[in-house]
Amino acid sequence: MIEIVVLSIIQGVTEFLPISSSAHLIITAKYFNFNNQNLTLDMSLHLGSLLAIIFYFKKDLSNLINNNNKLFLKITLSSVPVIIFGFFLVQLNLIDYLRGYKIIGWSTVFFAVLLYFSDLVKVKKKFKRDFKYSSALYIGFFQVISLVPGVSRSGIAITAARLLNFGRIDAAQISFLISIPILSVVSLYNLQSLLINKNFDISLLNFLGIFLSFIFSYATIKYFLKFLKRFSLLTFVVYRLILGSFILIYAY
Fold first, then answer.
1. Distance between CA atoms of 173 and 225, rounded to whole angstroms?
2. pLDDT 10s digits, 196-244
3. How far apart, in Å, do the first and last CA atoms of the chain sit?
């Protein structure tokens, strides 16, 4: 029970921050020798985050579906590359090869540096005005890299958006919205796995994880956007550099 609680809280807090939820889940599970941490549970925790972001942006999503079909298509399009590549990685059983400490450590450090330089780019674009199909594809292909633990899907999406001259708030909103199709696919995959395996004991624990992940995800989205109105992304860059350094020291 305590394992599910801890992992759910980590998922909720780290999913939408540019610090990699998968890396934190993997490292925590390995360090504390959590038995329930596996790819299925890792993905199932994303359902709580999905529900949180849908609830937080319910008005925006309603407007997208009813009044802005082009923007809805762009958001969907941006998720296609990572879904396709993720599917093949899972089918070919290559995901586990990317979950080592060395890979996580180096990706955490390298993409912290990239995040830092992207945050220096001048703001020239607005999400609602300048988010084009080319922008969606550009960010979408960047997100493929987030399949490597330590990169951070949120972090790489924000990095890509900042490199396209979007402001921090707009970059975060883009990251949040384009996460919805991805989290939806991940959640459906996990539910399918639970039904196939008929593992009802784990599924009951997953409901607790979903609830806690929802609470902490919602709070993270809300306060992260408030944070970006006053501060840069440097705090997350420094955190990633420190975390990545400790991981690499341990790995080597």
1. 8
2. 766 555 667 777 878 888 999 999 999 999 999 999 999 999 999 999 9
3. 33
pLDDT (average), residues 63-87: 86
- Nearest of 91, 88, 100 to residue 144 by alpha carbon: 88
Q: How far apart are CA 230 and CA 164, in angstroms?
A: 21
pTM for the model: 0.90
Give the separation between CA 26 and CA 50, rounded to whole angstroms.
20
Give the amino acid at 152. Answer: S
Query: 206 lies in which domain range?
Result: 2-251
The answer to whether 136 and 77 have CB atoms below 8 angstroms apart is yes
Alpha helices by DSSP H, 17-57: 21-31, 39-44, 46-56
Look at the chain and report how many structural domains it folds into.
Answer: 1
Which amino acid makes up residue 109?
Answer: V
- DSSP string across the chain: -HHHHHHHHHHHHHTTTTT-HHHHHHHHHHHTT-SS-SHHHHHHTHHHHHHHHHHHTHHHHHHHHHH-HHHHHHHHHHHHHHHHHHHHHHHTT-GGGG-SHHHHHHHHHHHHHHHHHHTTSPP-B-HHHH--HHHHHHHHHHHHGGGSTTS-HHHHHHHHHHHTTB-HHHHHHHHHHHHHHHHHHHHHHHHHHHHHHT-HHHHHHHHHHHHHHHHHHHHHHHHHHHHHTT--SHHHHHHHHHHHHHHHHHH-
Q: Return the CA Rg of the chain.
A: 17
